[in-house]
Design a protein that fits this description.
The protein is an alpha+beta fold. Helix content is 45%, strand content 15%. It has helices at residues 67-86, 93-119, 129-148; strands at residues 2-6, 13-17, 23-26, 32-35, 46-49.
């Protein structure tokens, strides 16, 4: 999340993140200050920038493959989902309904897959001529060897 504050020196607007902890913010005119999100004085004469969206850069490894980038995106989304589940009571109701729907769909899909797996019979292979000949040969070898001993 970003905060927009007016520079007391030049009256320009400064946008800076407040979710990074204490950071040193510097204006183009040279004025700088320490932005501490825990300090209530920081929020006086300032506003939140709710419309700003960060542009995500594509992550490539040295060979130019996107695989490590996809893995890191997947891991980040799992961590975000875990965070949402841990703070479920604090989420807006629309977000809660979305999470409940997703979990419900996953449970239904797993239930359908388990029903198909456990209750649908597996078709048995119909033996062809080679299988029958091989079985007869094995039976003949087994019987003749037990007869000899």
């Amino acid at each position: 999340m970003y905060l927009i504050k007016v520079c007391p020196s030049c009256q320009n607007k400064i946008r800076f993140p407040i979710d990074k902890g204490k950071i040193q913010v510097k204006c183009a005119c040279g004025y700088s200050f320490l932005a501490d999100p825990d300090n209530p004085q920081l929020y006086k004469n300032s506003r939140f920038d709710l419309n700003y969206k960060r542009v995500k850069k594509r992550i490539r490894n040295k060979e130019g493959s996107f695989i490590p980038g996809i893995i890191s995106i997947f891991i980040n989304r799992l961590i975000n989902f875990k965070y949402k589940l841990q703070n479920f009571r604090l989420l807006p109701s629309a977000e809660q309904n979305k999470i409940i729907t997703i979990i419900g769909l996953i449970v239904i899909i797993l239930l359908i897959i388990s029903l198909i797996y456990f209750f649908c019979p597996v078709p048995k292979k119909v033996p062809d001529e080679e299988d029958i000949a091989l079985q007869l040969f094995n039976y003949a070898v087994c019987c003749s060897s037990s007869f000899l001993f």
